[in-house]
Amino acid sequence: MIQTDILIIGAGPTGLFTVFEAGLLKLKCHILDALPQPGGQLAELYPKKPIFDIPGFPEVLAGDLVNNLMEQIKQFQPGFTLGERAETIDKQEDGTFIVTSDKGTQIHANSVAIAGGLGSFEPRKPLIENLDFYEDKGVDYFIRDPEKFRNKKVVIAGGGDSALDWSIYLSNIASEVTLVHRRNEFRGALDSVEKVQELKNLGKIRLITPAEVIDLKGEQRLEGVVLEEDGATRTIATDYLIPLFGLTPKLGPIANWGLEIEKNAIKVDNTLDYQTNIPGIYAIGDVNTYPGKLKLILCGFHEATLMCQSVYQRMNPGKKYVLKYTTVSGIDGFDGSRKEAEKAVVKSIS
Ligand code: FAD
User: What is the phi-psi region of residue 295: left when phi exceeds 0, alpha when psi lies from -120 to 50, beta otherwise?
Assistant: First the structure.
């Protein structure tokens, strides 16, 4: 079982910055996110868009902000469990918590910070009756490791950027890529559409439109998909079906943890520390609500900072915390690397 001081549910900007503020207080963090990569909405929805209201950055690409946050927290060596959703929580007699993911990973933490944003992003699934049976047996909704598809037959379904981009990418890895879309027109970037056409002409992508996957075949695992095309059906052999129909955020299982919920957000005490109605469980960033709440990145950063102070008090009752400026105290990563490096520089200068 993974042991940590703070379990952060959500690797969006709020969750990532929490690691930094906790690190200053020598609190160890583990981050759990349903998505395969950190960054929350910034990485998933708008990595190439510039943000203009991050203090000190007149303009920063969302993807770059995520990279910077990752760089800023790496000295505190947070643990990451990605691609897994927080499913259940069990409060222990000593007031600590064990959170279990949908894949069975267990994390034992003194405190839990829910930084779940709009909720966990769940893939939109096609309406195919026997779909459940083939999940993880040939049906994948995320591409975590493209190498998995090397020399395999792959059918990608969808008409947006993800479907186009992955078809292009996998055309160099898979033995066969078939892109199926229910319309003749694609919603993705024009240059991606043109690239797919070009690869089709070169025989590297098979394009089937307008068509839909309506059934799946295979005894133990996926062996073929049934397509409906112009009112007729045909079966094509495949090792994988990757439906890429976008993601929808859902508060999901957290909604059943006994927390006070208002309009799909978790109510917190904003006069103090963003704690929920369950002591030791906090909610920060877009996922929470309180009078005057603004769903902005910088508000999440502020909430994370105050929350970490509260966890520090929870873990060190009665111990007086003295606020230290990083300009004065510096940053001492868990491996002491920064201070050691600074000492070495000072030594070599003197
Ligand atoms: P999120 O970024 O939503 O991250 C939450 C993470 O939690 C997700 O990765 C999710 O997968 C994970 N999660 C949720 N539930 C679970 C679970 N049960 N188990 C595991 N993981 C879970 N804000 C600004 O300040 N300035 C802007 O200019 C700006 N522009 C925007 C433009 C667009 C197009 C959009 C969509 C938003 C914009 N925002 C902007 C809003 C900003 O992105 C959010 O305020 C910010 O992402 C909130 O960060 P967060 O960390 O709280 O949540």
Answer: beta
DSSP 287: G
Measured CA to CA, the distance from residue 29 to residue 6 in angstroms comes to 5
Report the SS3 class of residue 108. strand
Q: What percentage of residues in the chain have a pLDDT greater than 70?
A: 95
Average pLDDT over residues 93-122: 94
Which domains are present in the chain? 2-121+248-319 (3.50.50.60), 125-245 (3.50.50.60)
In the chain, count H helices and then E strands.
9, 21
CA distances from 258 to 75, 120, 271, 278, 315 (A): 35, 18, 21, 8, 23
Q: Which of 37-46, 119-128, 134-143, 195-204 has the lowest mean pLDDT?
A: 119-128
Instruction: Give the tens place of pLDDT for each residue, 35-78.
Output: 889 999 999 888 888 999 999 999 999 999 999 999 999 999 99
Picking from 308, 247, 253, the residue whose alpha carbon sits closest to that of residue 113 is: 308
Q: Which element (helix H / strand E) includes 109? A: strand 106-114
pLDDT at 150 over 90: yes
Evaluated on CA atoms 175, 180, 186, 188, the torsion sign reads negative
The model's pTM: 0.76
Report which ligand 1 atom has the smallest distance to the Cα of 85: 19
Of the candidates 256, 280, 253, 252, the residue with the CA atom closest to the CA atom of residue 268: 280
Query: If you take atom 6 of ligand 1, which residue's CA is the nearest one?
Result: 10
Average pLDDT over residues 20-38: 95
Distance 184 CA to ligand 1 centre (A): 33
* pLDDT tens digit sequence for 159-169: 998 899 999 99
- CA 98–ligand 1 middle distance (angstroms): 24
Match 């001081």 to its residue by tokens.
5
Query: Hey, CA dihedral for 299, 304, 305, 309, is it positive or negative?
Result: positive
Residues at CB less than 6 angstroms from ligand 1: 9-15, 32-35, 40-42, 45-46, 51, 53, 85-86, 115-121, 252, 254, 285-286, 295-298, 300
Q: Please list the residues that pair with 33 across neighbouring strands.
A: 82
Residue 344 has pLDDT above 50, yes or no: no
